[in-house]
Design a protein that fits this description.
The structure is a homodimer of 375-residue chains.
Chain A (H helix, E strand, L loop, with lengths): L7 E5 L6 E6 L17 E7 L3 H12 L5 E7 L8 H13 L7 E6 L1 H13 L6 E5 L2 H7 L4 E6 L2 E8 L5 E4 L8 H18 L1 H15 L3 H21 L14 H11 L6 H18 L5 H13 L20 H9 L12 E4 L5 E4 L3 H11 L2
Parallel strand pairs in A: 2-9, 3-4, 3-5, 5-6
Antiparallel strand pairs in A: 1-2, 7-8, 10-11
Helix pairs in contact in A: 2-3, 4-5, 4-7, 5-6, 5-7, 5-9, 6-7, 8-9, 8-11, 9-10, 9-12, 11-12
Chain lengths: 375, 375
Amino acid sequence: MPLSPAVETVSIALAERSYPILIASGLLGDAAVWDDLPAAGAALIVTNVTVAPLYAARLQAALAGRYRQVHTVVLPDGEAFKTWETLNRIFDELLGRGCDRRTVLFALGGGVVGDMTGFAAASFMRGVPFVQVPTTLLAQVDSSVGGKTAINHPLGKNMIGAFYQPLKVVCDLQTLQSLPARELSAGLAEVIKYGPIADMAFLDWIEAHLPALRACEPAALAHAVRRSCEIKASVVGQDERETGLRAILNFGHTFGHAIEAGMGYGQWLHGEAVGCGMVMATRLSQALGLVDAAFADRLVRLVAAAGLPVVGPVLPAPQGGPAADNAERYLALMRVDKKAQDGDIRFVLIDGPGRAVVRSAPDALVRQVIDACCR
Amino acid sequence: MPLSPAVETVSIALAERSYPILIASGLLGDAAVWDDLPAAGAALIVTNVTVAPLYAARLQAALAGRYRQVHTVVLPDGEAFKTWETLNRIFDELLGRGCDRRTVLFALGGGVVGDMTGFAAASFMRGVPFVQVPTTLLAQVDSSVGGKTAINHPLGKNMIGAFYQPLKVVCDLQTLQSLPARELSAGLAEVIKYGPIADMAFLDWIEAHLPALRACEPAALAHAVRRSCEIKASVVGQDERETGLRAILNFGHTFGHAIEAGMGYGQWLHGEAVGCGMVMATRLSQALGLVDAAFADRLVRLVAAAGLPVVGPVLPAPQGGPAADNAERYLALMRVDKKAQDGDIRFVLIDGPGRAVVRSAPDALVRQVIDACCR
């Protein structure tokens, strides 16, 4: 049975690793969506305790015609569990069930489930196929697209992982209707991100449609997901492994990762930390004279209007760690960022509206921005 | 300073992932060998407690001109330590030392060090460059070449890993002079392997030069390493990710992995298990009528003459596992082999001298062969 014409498709062009992102309501329960996946004896749905009761049975039923055995593993929910121990539960399940190299993994959930399932697929038997079925706005507009997979290390976020592309990404917009408001706001951070780095017309649209987005209006969400995926697809298609351009997608993430790690994974949602991180990166851009106060104030207002924090937290002193002030704690955490080179922090900054640049900044200026943004 | 003309080079042709294997005596202490590596602030030598006292200082000195900081992490020695816990010590060192995406890893040791360092390099910050510096015959002729990296899982060998190619492989033949006889024999298993699957003239040469090889004569070792690498390079160049042809390099490994896992990792050396596994795979080939008794007897004699076991072990019953006879224990372990499909074990068999085939075999026949080969 063919897919409904109402399904929108964005393509990620990566030669033999190219794949489609499907966007529509009701996709995950539609057997036609899964028709073209490679044949295999078994599939494994990886999900979490929050998402499983809502959608696992529906996906399982839709896959039942395609795979003789459809197993499910239910992980704990939250960034704090994006660890080797949780990842190993996926391997235990795969090996305990006698899964083989053709087994297809399905990541049913948000960014944490997607990142871990992707890394499990990249590593199990040195690589098995997988599909992203993102059920949060954040995962639909960002983390499920582009093949970045990882787990966290106590000393840094997403430090252990792989670039590994899925066979397809299936964004079922209906799943967004069950999102708590806090998760929706977190996802809006990654939507907003695409404006200042790449597309000011999209930023205008987001400003105009923010009430509709926060009210979960289907048409607004559909446009936000599609346009976000288009921009991400364009960037990833030019630089799959982040040797240059792709780093601009990390706008807000250098400060944001420091917040997440410094507060303890799971205290702040990833999107909340990115929202606040965008504020700090924008203020740093302003301090460097790259954007004016009007632009910076506009972006901060939008982040706040999305329901996201715009004041950074004062990070607690690490147990047994050296005494240091708040700015020093941020700097120490940012020095292990993956973009850093020889201890030199590389920030994604706004270099005029709609244009991002990756560069370093004087420590003293970064401290001033941190001091001004946190309390 | 240019490399000495005495250095032999075998090339692995994989488009943008192509790299050379350098083969000569005294290479690891020669700064010219490391001259063309990418610039970076830091390097990390990964080695083990056995190899570190012999060669780590020499490699460190040779790298000192190229990297501002050369760190070393010393792991425990042996297959039993090819685990996530040991791998994590590499990540701890990298993050604790403030290493970044440009940091180059050096695997100084045998197959276990090479497999773990390669997987660490594949996964740290989603991929950093690495170099193989194999110091055992087994690693020089097989495991350091071709980009297979992995760690073990309690339920199966090499189950978690990546295809990830090194920047170069540096085979310092001098390191083989410090190898214990048991390790040398283990390496000879992987040398012998190349004959029956690909090159009967090489098998003739091995038979004629076995005493010289076991006596560590430099010229004989040089030829064995070079010819082995040539055959492996040719196979890997045609099928990097083992979608077909490359599986023939696993001749002896299906039975061999069952021996390693069934006896407990580290009880049998990998090469010993492969040697005995080749005997069992050859007897299975004979039972299927693919080779005659004269060929099979010849190969078994050569394995024995290399100082390798030709009688398979009776596997101990797993703790808390089901009661089963020895053949059933082998079969259960082989069903989780990476080549298995839907529980159907795929054996690499000899399909006439110098030619391998990957196929299944009736369980009853496999049992007969196991019963005949083990005591």
